[in-house]
Specification:
single chain, 371 residues, alpha/beta, DNA polymerase, domain 1, TIM Barrel, 2 domains, ten-stranded mixed β-sheet, two-stranded parallel ribbon, 12 helices, 34% helix, 18% strand, binds S-adenosyl-L-homocysteine
């Protein structure tokens, strides 16, 4: 085969890793096969970590040959795998010649959380986030997002569901998942599909800086759990820390959260993430303002001690300030937890993910503005 023919063959193959069940069933019909093949193949790929059709032994030889010609299960190259002293694992995955993203596994006593990336870099430029300072290259596609789960699950042994180490998935890695719903929603469906990972909707969380029109679509389209990166109790401060606030200010964001929890089951709530920045958003008056802002929204507030990175303007709030802040929120009737920092020794903590981003926004030259 000439090199050119080889290239054509690779690029014209259909990828099966990133297809949700509906898409895959439609694909099998399209190629003249029975739609139930979708469930068989999904199990092989996602539950057994198999990417070669020859290993899918309950398919006929003829079907395996046909699939080899038409399709593939595309998986990224693992460039690095790092282990923290606290058990956290970070993978750096190559998505194309210029870009790589990070994925982090955080084991805890009763659960294991995988934190996945949805974009190469991020366009939102939040001031306190390392990814935000790096710029943006592109959205990740379905296969590139679900591949993070596939790689981690395989590295952790592809166990039967009850013994699987990844019990929760959070879209809290690099990127803004709600600026890439075309790819993150189908991936959420694969994560929740019983023929793939079978996670319940309470165990899949999309975290967003507040893309209001997409928040409004979540419940109808995927109904996963929702976390909001709030970080400030008023527009003036939030405009500065989370610039997308200029486009979707608090008077638009907060009503969309009420809308999200409304009519849900009794335990439905939103997680409010609030990074603790020394002398920036951690004062007593900020805590009171936050209580007033959240009113009687069904929510849990998660205070995140700031994780520093090179050239940042900020410092982590003192423990005293964090506990004082929590006390005021609790006295105001809010349910509060303080996020334990994990994986700091391998730069795997919240906001420290960097990967390899070939920036197309010239972030270092201009600040992205949302007006
Ligand atoms: N774009 C999405 C998801 C990525 S960030 C979002 O904004 O929610 C995941 C979480 O880590 C967010 O709550 C984010 O605000 C927080 N975070 C970012 N930088 C951080 C830092 N340096 N220290 C602590 N948390 C940080």
């Amino acid at each position: 085969m000439t090199p050119m023919a080889q290239v054509e063959e690779v690029s014209s193959k259909v990828d099966l890793l990133g297809m949700d069940r509906e898409k895959m069933a439609a694909y099998f019909i399209e190629i003249g096969e029975k739609p139930f093949r979708a469930t068989q193949i999904m199990k092989w790929i996602h539950q057994f970590g198999v990417s070669e059709f020859d290993e899918m032994t309950n398919l006929s030889k003829a079907l395996r040959e046909k699939l080899k010609r038409l399709a593939h299960v595309r998986t990224p190259k693992v460039i690095a795998e790092q282990y923290s002293d606290d058990g956290t694992i970070k993978w750096l995955l190559e998505m194309d010649n210029h870009n790589a993203v990070e994925t982090v596994f955080i084991p805890e006593k009763n659960r294991g959380t995988l934190c996945i990336s949805s974009q190469v870099g991020c366009a939102l430029a939040c001031r306190f986030c390392s990814t935000g300072q790096q710029g943006f290259n592109r959205n990740l596609e379905n296969w590139e997002i679900i591949a993070q789960m596939w790689v981690a699950n395989k590295a952790l042994g592809c166990k039967p569901k009850e013994e699987r180490r990844i019990s929760n998935v959070v879209f809290m890695g690099m990127g803004e998942p709600l600026l890439n719903v075309m790819h993150t929603f189908p991936v959420a469906r694969i994560l929740m599909d019983d023929f793939a990972y079978g996670l319940s909707k309470r165990r899949v969380t999309i975290s967003t800086a507040g893309v209001v029109p997409a928040i409004d679509k979540i419940k109808a389209e995927v109904d996963v759990s929702l976390a909001i990166s709030l970080h400030a109790p008023n527009n003036a401060l939030r405009d500065e820390l989370v610039p997308i606030n200029k486009k979707y200010p608090l008077e638009k964001l907060i009503p969309s959260l009420y809308q999200y929890v409304e009519g849900g089951h009794s335990k439905k709530h939103v997680t409010i993430e609030y990074v603790m920045l020394d002398h920036v958003n951690d004062r007593v008056e900020h805590a009171h303002e936050l209580v007033a802002l959240l009113g009687d929204l069904a929510c849990k507030v998660n205070l995140i001690p700031f994780n520093p990175f090179p050239n940042t303007d900020y410092q982590r709030s003192s423990n005293n300030a964090i506990h004082r802040f929590r006390g005021i929120l609790e006295a105001g009737g809010l349910n509060v937890t303080i996020r334990k920092t994990r994986g700091e020794d391998i730069d795997a903590a919240c906001g420290q993910l960097a990967g390899k981003v070939s920036d197309r926004t010239k972030r270092t030259l201009h600040r992205v503005e949302f007006n």
